[in-house]
Amino acid sequence: MKDYLTKAYAFDGRVRLYAARTTNLVHEAQKIHQLWPTSAAALGRLLTGSIIMGAMYKDDQELTIRVESNGPIEGMVTTTNAKGQVRGYVGNPKLFFKNNTGGIHLPQAIGEGKIHVTKDVKVRDYFTSTSAIQTGEIAEDLAYYFTVSEQIPSAVALGEKINPDNTIELAGGFILQRMPGCPEETIELIEKRLKKLKPVSQMLEEDYTPEAMIDAITKGDHQILHTLDLSYYCDCNKEKFERGLLSLGKKQLEKLKHDDKEIETACHFCGTKYHFDEAAIDELIKEIS
Ligand SMILES: [Zn+2]
Question: Which domain holds residue 150?
Fold first, then answer.
């Protein structure tokens, strides 16, 4: 099944629902960063949560989420847009903690700290809101962010299944948001349905499409708005890295050239390496002068 997201209005238009299957893009992230299971699950959930949040924005707007915490994961970053593209990386790719039922134990990996959400709406400055990590399971932490920082009561569920060989087998999730004026009985009904809902990992295993996930919550009381194809995507290029090197200044570049003769940089998000030999560094120095 391809990775895609479905957006729907539900419960008489009082609720917004986004559901996504993200297996391929999380698998891609695991391959790029050589992630062990716990690191893969942590980054996978953040990538899935991010890409769903990105779908709430407009075309050229970008959303960056930073997890800054004291756990051995050593932080995570994701960047996404409204076109269904996401990229990310994790501080420590080699974590594998199990809980007492043999599942992946994320809280131990994440620890305590903060989630920073930065919106680049391409008109003015960036907007960053910060909220405290609640459980380290990522889904609850994003739900808390929405409820506290954006004042949008939200339920977030994210999950994955990992193959015996430690590769990501399945990934996905959903975000449910209540609109202002949602009646009390609807709120109660939603809470009841969410309590009875199968875990995301089980729905994925049973081949639920995003539409089926939505239907499991709404029991048919929804209207599909649109779907969006999702992918792992990095837009880095040599010019970006040139700008980064230029920002170091002439002195620093001359020192790098003297010490190393060449510079090799790698993109954090996709691993692409960019090589600058002596002549290329000279060009940069000339550009500054
Ligand atoms: Zn890149």
Answer: 4-232
